[in-house]
Amino acid sequence: MGAGQPVTRRMETGMNRPDLARPRCKWAQADAMMMTYHDEEWGVPVHDSRQLWEMLVLESFQAGLSWRTILRRREGFRRAFMGFDHDRVARFTEADVTRLMADPGIIRARAKIVAAIGNARAYVAMRAAGEDLATFAWGMLPGGKPVHEPNPGVQAASPLSQAMASALRARGFRFVGPVTAYAWMQAAGMIHDHEAGCFRHACDTV
């Protein structure tokens, strides 16, 4: 893919066989699943609020783990969290927490599960207050455009991700610190962080 060609986001990683000869970000070279996720999803701008919420929940579960661990379980998370229907998740009870703690298809960390339910309620509260998650998140960026990091692949947080985390916490979101916010912004294309040698480094992802 040459410079100036848009990248189309896919949400079913693993359906296409990646081109092993393509140069990629170092973190994406572990296996075909990671390569396909990198090639088709990571860093492609997302402006859909529901999808952004799903991604934020998954990033919050990654804390202390590898992204590969989460990606392998993404379909399990989708089943367990009702297709990431925030309205349904916001109504989860203690019985649902117990159910999720027994589900081998997800990461069974009680604090993260409780936080995900709380984050669904925070999302619903934002919407009730007339605030759209996507509009809010992209509005945090200068000019509402993706930020190109000068040294991609080096840092795990930034002043922008610190501001994003603070703004999310002020709206009731939990398990979203600067590192998680940075990873979310990278994945959702708010921060363009493909490494210099990666074939997608020069791609126009806007």
UniProtKB/TrEMBL annotation:
The cross-references to Pfam families, in alphabetical order and at most eight, read: Adenine_glyco
Q: Which UniProt keywords apply?
A: Metal-binding, Zinc
Q: Which domain of life is it from?
A: Bacteria
Q: Which GO terms describe its molecular function?
A: DNA-3-methyladenine glycosylase activity; metal ion binding
Q: Name one GO biological process term.
A: base-excision repair
Q: What positions does the entry give for Zn(2+) binding?
A: 25, 38, 194, 198
Q: Report the protein name in the record.
A: DNA-3-methyladenine glycosylase I
Q: Which lineage do the record's taxonomy fields give for this organism?
A: Bacteria, Pseudomonadati, Pseudomonadota, Alphaproteobacteria, Acetobacterales
